Every structure is written in structure tokens, then in C-alpha cells.
């Protein structure tokens, strides 16, 4: 009888996750399903598969002194560094009761963002700001804990729109405030390094919760305090032959916004035009990363077919 070959560690972890019914997308944390000692094993498994990738790229990993250790280095970087937010448990956070009954706007930031896009595994580097409006029953957490929680969420293959929603959900759960705002501005290296090779690749988006959604003055106070300047306007680097498409996009968006009561009145047509943050041409489509700051329309990714 042949002895059973042990299952690769990734398969063991995956079956546990599947049994629980939990999702295990690139931006999900699966630390609850990893047993002591398995992180090292996982790193070994990733290393051996990365060696195969290098071999498939026809790189002589045996004789090329520069790539001999690359699989090992990249495996360690993925599992223990840049994607550790998937594999490590949440950093412990002590919550303090709001004994002083603080009820003034608190702003944390800029917090450095280091992440990677889940489409290309290219770096996303940026900054984020967190606004908290506490109430008497809020649990306050230490200032440095905001960056540690943000780092835990960001150290996963992500897309920016989902990353800040994950962070906002986590902070609402931990702090239990009257309102919460997160604004993130980031540079997407997959747009520099590949694809359109466009240097205007910054994207800004925000999530507003609670009183930040209802109170326009509070939103304006927060946004003016973080003093974020818009990173890209359509007149700035937008390909002129695509201007008509952009105008068409704005018209369609106006129709869409008219259905959402009050939104259009607050933003106005000029505000919408100024909210275009980044664009990307891919496979015959023009994609516009678009965002209207602070009106609860979190982000819109518009895709237009190019003729
Ligand atoms: Zn990408």
C-alpha cells in the first residue's frame, strides 16, 4: 500500500474555510482557519510554486545569482509582509469608554496606505484620513490603533473602493460613533507600469456614515480640514478625442443623479465634472474612476464603449 501523501497546506486551510462557509476572496482575512506552524508551511508552498512561475518564464534560476533566491524572497514578502492582512489576526485594540464625553470632530491622518491591486498584484500607495464624530456611548481607541487597523485591511490584494468600505465597517464596529468618514487618495502602479502607462493614475474616494451623510456642514468641515486637492480634472490630461464621450458620460450621470433626491442640487454639473479622478482605456472601453466627495455617492466606475 502506498502511504498517503499529505495534502498541501493551502488545501487543508481551504477545506476548513469552505466547511465554515466563509468567503475567501483576496481581500478577506482567513487567519481563523490557520493552525500554529502552518504559516511557515504556507510560505514554503508558495515558494515552490513561484519557482515554477520563474521556470515557466524561462529564467535560469539555478545559474542566475540574482534570481536564485527570488521565489523564497517573494513568498516571504507575500505571506508575511504585503499580504499579511489576509493571514494574521486583527491587531489587538483596546477600547476606552468615552469618559470625557467627547463630541467634537476628530480627524486622524494622513495614514500611509500600502496595498496592492487584486487585478495585477501591483502596488497601491497612498494616504487616507479618518474622521470620527463620537457620542457619549462611543468606545474610543488610541490614535495609533487607527493606522494599525488601516494597515491590517490594506495589507491584502485589494481594490480601493472595497478597501475603504472594509475599513469603515471595521471602525464603525470598534468605535460605535455617531458618524464616520474615510477618504483615501492613492496611486495605482498598474496604471504606471503597464496598460495605459498613464502617470495621472491617482484615485480618490470616500465613505461617509451616520451624521457625515446627513450634515453637509460637518462634511465640509472635515473635507476642508484634510485639505485634499483633487488629483485629476478632466481638462488635465484627459485625451481630447475622448472629450465627447466624457460629456456623454456626464449627461448619463446627471439623469442618474436626478433620480436621487437632493443629490444633484448639492453637487451641480460642475462638481460632477470635477469629480473625475482617473481614467483608463482597456479592451475597447473607457473606464472612468469617478467620485463626488461627501455626498454619499461613494464611487462610480463608469465604463463606456469606445467606437
Ligand atoms: Zn491593477
Task: Kindly summarize this structure in a few lines.
The protein is an alpha+beta fold and 307 residues long. The protein contains 11 helices and 10 strands.
CATH level-four homologous superfamily name of the largest domain: GTP cyclohydrolase I, C-terminal domain/NADPH-dependent 7-cyano-7-deazaguanine reductase, N-terminal domain
Could you say what the CATH topology of the largest domain is called? GTP Cyclohydrolase I, domain 2
SSE class: alpha+beta
End-to-end Cα distance, whole Å, is: 64 Å
Q: From N to C, what is the helix and strand string? A: HHHHEEEEHEHEHEHHHHEEE
Low-confidence stretches: 229-237, 261-266, 291-307
pLDDT averaged over residues = 80
Bound molecule kinds, no repeats: zinc ion
How many domains make up the coordinates?
3
Beta content comes to 15-25%
Tell me about the largest β-sheet. Answer: 5 strands, mixed
Number of H/I helices: 11
**Rg over C-alpha atoms, rounded to the nearest angstrom:** 22 Å
CATH top-level class of the largest domain:
Alpha Beta
Number of strands: 10
Reported CATH architecture of the largest domain: 2-Layer Sandwich
Strand order of the largest sheet: 5-2-3-6-7
Helix content: 25-40%
Please describe the topology of this protein.
Layout: H1 9-20, H2 38-56, H3 70-82, H4 84-87, E1 95-97, E2 106-117, E3 123-133, E4 139-141, H5 143-154, E5 157-158, H6 160-175, E6 179-188, H7 190-193, E7 202-210, H8 211-214, H9 216-226, H10 243-258, H11 263-273, E8 276-282, E9 285-290, E10 300-305
Parallel strand pairs: 2-5
Antiparallel strand pairs: 1-4, 2-3, 3-6, 6-7, 8-9, 9-10
Helix pairs in contact: 2-3, 5-6, 10-11
The protein binds zinc ion.
Amino acid at each position: 500500500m502506498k502511504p498517503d501523501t499529505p495534502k498541501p497546506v493551502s488545501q487543508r486551510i481551504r477545506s476548513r474555510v469552505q466547511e465554515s462557509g466563509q468567503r475567501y476572496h483576496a481581500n478577506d482575512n482567513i487567519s481563523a482557519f490557520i493552525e500554529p506552524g502552518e504559516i511557515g508551511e504556507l510560505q514554503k508552498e508558495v515558494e515552490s510554486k513561484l519557482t515554477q512561475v520563474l521556470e515557466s518564464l524561462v529564467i535560469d534560476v539555478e545559474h542566475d545569482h540574482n534570481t536564485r533566491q527570488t521565489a523564497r524572497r517573494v513568498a516571504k514578502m507575500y505571506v508575511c509582509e504585503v499580504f499579511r492582512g489576509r493571514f494574521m489576526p486583527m491587531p489587538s485594540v483596546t477600547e476606552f469608554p468615552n469618559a470625557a464625553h467627547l463630541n467634537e470632530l476628530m480627524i486622524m491622518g494622513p495614514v500611509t496606505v500600502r496595498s496592492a491591486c487584486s487585478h495585477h498584484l501591483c502596488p497601491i500607495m497612498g494616504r487616507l484620513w479618518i474622521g470620527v464624530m463620537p457620542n457619549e456611548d462611543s468606545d474610543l481607541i488610541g490614535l495609533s490603533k487607527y493606522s494599525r487597523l488601516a494597515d491590517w485591511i490594506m495589507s491584502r490584494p485589494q481594490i480601493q473602493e472595497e478597501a475603504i468600505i472594509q475599513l469603515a465597517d471595521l471602525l464603525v464596529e470598534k468605535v460605535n460613533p455617531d458618524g464616520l468618514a474615510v477618504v483615501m487618495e492613492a496611486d495605482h502602479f498598474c496604471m504606471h507600469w503597464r496598460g495605459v502607462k498613464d502617470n495621472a493614475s491617482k484615485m480618490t474616494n470616500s465613505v461617509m456614515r451616520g451624521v457625515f451623510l446627513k450634515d453637509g456642514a460637518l462634511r465640509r468641515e472635515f473635507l476642508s480640514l484634510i485639505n485634499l486637492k483633487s488629483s485629476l480634472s478632466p481638462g488635465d490630461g484627459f485625451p481630447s478625442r475622448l472629450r465627447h464621450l466624457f460629456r456623454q458620460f456626464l449627461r448619463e450621470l446627471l439623469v442618474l443623479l436626478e433620480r436621487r433626491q437632493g443629490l444633484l442640487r448639492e453637487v451641480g454639473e460642475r462638481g460632477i465634472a470635477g469629480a473625475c479622478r482617473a481614467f483608463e482605456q482597456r479592451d475597447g472601453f473607457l473606464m472612468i474612476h469617478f467620485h463626488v466627495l461627501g455626498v454619499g455617492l461613494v464611487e462610480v466606475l463608469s465604463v463606456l464603449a469606445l467606437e
